[in-house]
Design brief:
single chain; 701 residues; alpha+beta; Glycosyltransferase; 5-stranded antiparallel beta sheet; 17 strands; 32% helix
């Protein structure tokens, strides 16, 4: 037999794995990708537990193999150990399942090169990967020296292949490789005759067999923006107004309605209030966490209603009246539910300490969520008064089309104002946890005056304007220097309503002085944003712009106040000279992609969940109930918040359209970093006056 020389190299003893010829790389069929981006994806694992998985029998241990190198794997039920770039071990002591129970959880995969799909799984020693095609199968492992040829062409007239299971005769054998492709229990030797001994059938062909079949994925594309562009210049105030109201849908707690435009949110907080045998489902999560704090929620509702009252034409022109009213009513419905007695209202659900320790979506909460009340024995003047203001303002919005509902709002508002004024005490004394998140810094005097003014406007009862004047005199609001209009400080709002309801120069002078201070003396960033506070600087600027636009509409320095407010809103939408970026998620040039918000990450939950039955059907649509933690599991036993999700450099998979990011520092610095809750968190309070300001700009554009 004739042959030709071959070039060989001898490798030291090491382990190789033979992949069956013709194998196609496909993903395990219990994995459903629900969202992906250029360098990673989110997926749901959906299967039946093959055995009991319980903490007392060793918990969960899974070994995973990927098709390509993985830079980072996020598993939210326990620690992961990276064996090498393709192999990981996942463990958990919180899984508590019986054999055949649905086992569903979410994980995230990050990679730098080729997409890494999951091609092999074992769960507590049991193989569970059933790929949709043929996956690479290890055949033989050896630690013997292996001879590798970089090019080999062997011609024989009688090539004989010996095997324990099959004999195949061919007139020509060609093998080309630059990588180890054959692992045997014996050394591979190149001789004048080709002899291969293996424990599996071997097929020899005249051409190298290379399988390059691409993996097939079932994925969902990122959700489109439900708010269409209108072409308005220089900025699309109508579209951004639509998006601002859309943001409030992303903040909803409780059972969600079928007309939700945000499809990645699901029901949450369904046991809220159960610790005190009251139903406190509903309302809004305050910001990027899951505590429901009544004080800032009530401020949000008051200012949303104010926009609906005074800039109704702009909201209508943008086609947003229905959505604006829905955003307001979601809050007022909750306040009516939380008002469980004439002089009682529940003011908070959730503990800031417990909540902030768990970086989870609201749908996946298992921590304790204590509820807190104010009443005659546990006064909370700021909370009761602000809620009274919200209900009074909302009654004006709903009076024409929902008279009975509006009358109920007004009745409850009057009861809460009585509670606030008669039983005076800062609310964060009765609800101490509020000091950690929304402490009352300016005291309760401004809320008492603010509530009396809104009741005066809603009822036209002169006794309330008299009460407001009394509060003005008692608390001397002009004694301190001008500051922001915010959930804590209502003074600029008080100046505005007093000027509207009372023609005394005292109030108009106070309002004009405040607006002049904003233009001429207030601090600004180098780019031109009025800087009234570090945490949420954009929100403070939007609030001030709203006051300026309200004043302009009612005839005070109209041109100057329009110009200043338009410039401030322009800063939020892209006029900032250093960055030329939008601070509104999903809008404009280079908007924030990594805002501090738990609900946006991990993966999406699709609204079709109500129609889906099997776990695989639900997971294929993005629904992933985390069932590995038993319902009785409390915060003290929870695993630590998954730092991988929090620290990931990737954009947030779910887009919180319309959310106004916190904003730059006083020196203008801003980094799109979800770890920075001072400058990159979102909040219901930021978008309230922002919505009204946008409506005002629609009116004058």
């Amino acid at each position: 037999m004739a042959g030709i020389p071959v070039k060989t190299c001898l490798l030291g003893a090491f382990t190789l794995t033979l992949l069956q010829t013709g194998a196609a790389v496909t993903q395990c069929d219990n994995v459903v990708i629900v969202n992906e981006w250029q360098t990673g994806y989110q997926a749901n694992f959906v299967d039946k537990a093959p055995v009991d998985i319980k903490p007392d029998n060793g918990g969960l241990t899974m070994q995973w193999t990927f098709s390509a190198p993985v830079t980072f794997l996020e598993f939210f039920q326990g620690p992961t150990v990276q064996v090498d770039e393709r192999h990981f071990t996942l463990t958990s002591q919180t899984v508590n399942l019986h054999e055949d129970d649905d086992f569903i959880f979410t994980f995230l995969v990050h990679f730098a090169g080729d997409k890494a799909i999951l091609v092999s799984e074992t769960l507590n020693g049991i193989p569970i990967c059933n790929a949709t095609g043929t996956t690479p199968v290890p055949v033989v492992t050896t630690t013997e020296p292996v001879v590798i040829t970089t090019e080999a062409v062997i011609t024989t007239t009688e090539a004989v292949i010996s095997t324990t299971e099959a004999v195949i005769t061919t007139t020509e054998s060609v093998v080309t490789t630059t990588e180890p492709v054959i692992t045997t229990t014996e050394s591979v030797v190149t001789t004048s005759e080709t002899v291969i001994t293996t424990t599996e059938p071997v097929i020899t062909t005249t051409e190298p067999v290379v399988t390059t079949t691409e993996p097939v994925y079932t994925t969902l594309t990122p959700e489109d923006n439900p708010c269409e562009a209108t072409g308005m210049k220089p900025y699309d105030y109508s579209q951004v107004l639509c998006m601002s109201y859309l943001f409030y849908e992303a903040q909803r707690s409780g059972p969600l309605p079928s007309d939700m435009r945000i499809t990645w949110r699901g029901n949450s907080g369904l046991d809220d209030g159960s610790d005190n045998n009251v139903n406190l489902t509903g309302g809004y999560y305050a910001s990027g966490d899951h505590v429901k704090v009544g004080f800032p929620m009530a401020y949000t509702a008051t200012v949303l209603a104010w926009g609906l009252i005074d800039f109704a034409d702009g909201i209508k022109a943008a086609g947003q009246t229905e959505y604006a009213e829905a955003a307001l009513k979601w809050a007022t419905d909750y306040f009516l539910k939380a008002h469980t007695d004439e002089y009682q209202i529940w003011g908070q659900v959730g503990s800031s300490e417990i909540d902030h320790a768990a970086w989870v979506r609201p749908e996946d909460m298992t921590m304790e969520r204590p509820s807190f009340v104010i009443d005659e024995d546990h006064p909370g003047t700021e909370l009761a008064a602000e809620t009274a203001a919200a209900l009074a303002a909302a009654s004006m919005v709903f009076w024409r089309d929902h008279t009975a509902y509006a009358a109920n709002l007004l009745d409850v508002g009057m009861q809460l104002y009585y509670l606030a004024n008669t039983y005076r005490q800062s609310y964060d004394i009765s609800i101490p946890d509020a000091k950690n998140t929304y402490p009352s810094v300016t005291g309760y005097g401004d809320e008492l005056c603010w509530a009396a003014l809104w009741l005066a406007r809603a009822t036209r009862d002169p006794s309330y304007i008299t009460s407001a004047r009394d509060h003005w005199d008692e608390f001397n609001f002009l004694n301190d220097s001008h500051t922001e209009f915010s959930w804590d400080d209502k003074r600029p709002g008080i100046y505005s309503l007093f000027w509207l309801l009372d023609n005394s120069n005292v109030y108009s002078d106070a309002l004009k002085s405040y607006l002049d201070w904003l233009k001429n003396e207030a601090p600004y960033t180098p780019e031109g944003l009025v800087f009234l506070g570090d945490k949420g600087s954009n929100g403070y600027a939007a609030n001030a712009a709203f006051i300026s636009l309200f004043t302009a509409k009612n005839g005070m320095d109209t041109e100057a106040n329009h110009k200043w407010a338009r410039e401030q809103i322009g800063q939020l939408l892209g006029d900032n000279s250093r960055y030329s970026r939008s601070f509104v998620v999903g809008y404009g040039k280079d908007p924030p992609q990594r805002v501090h918000h738990r609900g946006r990450f991990p993966p999406a939950v699709k609204r079709s969940r109500h129609l889906l039955n099997s776990p695989l059907e639900r997971a294929s649509q993005g629904y992933h109930p985390i069932i590995v933690t038993p319902p009785e599991h409390k915060a003290s036993c929870l695993p630590p918040a998954p730092e991988g999700a929090f620290n990931s450099p990737d954009p947030n998979p779910n887009i919180i359209y319309g959310a106004l990011a916190g904003g730059p520092a006083e020196n203008g610095d801003y980094v799109d970093d979800r770890q920075d809750n001072v400058h990159n968190e979102v909040s219901c309070t930021y978008n309230a006056a922002f919505s009204g300001a946008l409506a005002a700009l629609v009116e004058i554009s």
